[in-house]
Amino acid sequence: MSSFLLSALFAMAKLDLTYQVAYGESASEIEVVEYYSLSCPKCLQMFNEDFGALKEKYPEIRLVFHPDPADLLTLQFMVCLEKLEPDLRPIFFETVLECIYENEGRAGLAILQSAMEALKVPVPDLGKMEFLEKAPAYSAALRFLIQEDVISTVPSYEINGVLFDAAPTFASIDKEMQQRKKQ
């Protein structure tokens, strides 16, 4: 199987920007989108070990983190994001991913709730399915997941619409960036 699929063949609709966390200018010539899950150790590892180096080496690119809401913790995370003002979302995102990574995936719900309380936006019912089912994030997650074309694995990433069915690492993204600079 090829390491990437052209976007013309892969017509996936993304989640609303409310659920994505982006770094860099929206007008950047290069956009890297990582599809992640909070239940995915490799996703957490990429963010905690490679994200800073990518931002430092390539300040001109836009890095977007797009959730794959196929698990409960990522859905709960999306519910939290929709309750936060846009300027608080990156702070919440970074804090939560670091804490879940350090705790090796344990206590995810408690970490989400603690982070939301620290931001003065408590979500006490976050662990209740009846609460989640009423949240806009629930409907958005379902619409995303039932698409005919949807990502098959996490983590995966795309660069300017070209999807790579592989785990994004500093090395893999750096290699693609170096190839683009040669063109």
Fold blueprint:
Blueprint: E1 4-5, E2 21-23, E3 31-36, H1 41-57, E4 62-67, H2 72-83, H3 89-102, H4 108-118, H5 129-134, H6 136-145, E5 156-159, E6 162-164, H7 170-182
Parallel strand pairs: 3-4
Antiparallel strand pairs: 1-6, 2-4, 3-5, 5-6
Helix pairs in contact: 1-3, 2-4, 2-6, 3-4
Assign the CATH class. Answer: Alpha Beta
CATH superfamily caption: Glutaredoxin
Determine the fraction of residues in helical runs and give it as a percent range.
40-55%
Overall mean pLDDT: 89
Gyration radius over CA: 16 Å
What overall form do the CA principal axes indicate? globular
Euclidean distance between termini CA atoms: 25 Å
Number of helices: 7
Give an overview of the whole structure.
The protein is of the alpha+beta class and 183 residues long. It has one domain: Glutaredoxin (3-Layer(aba) Sandwich). The chain has 7 helices and 6 strands; from the N terminus they run E-E-E-H-E-H-H-H-H-H-E-E-H. Strand 3, helix 1 and strand 4 form a beta-alpha-beta unit. Helix 2 crosses helix 6. The longest helix is centred in the N-terminal third of the chain and has 17 residues. It is globular and about 50 Å long.
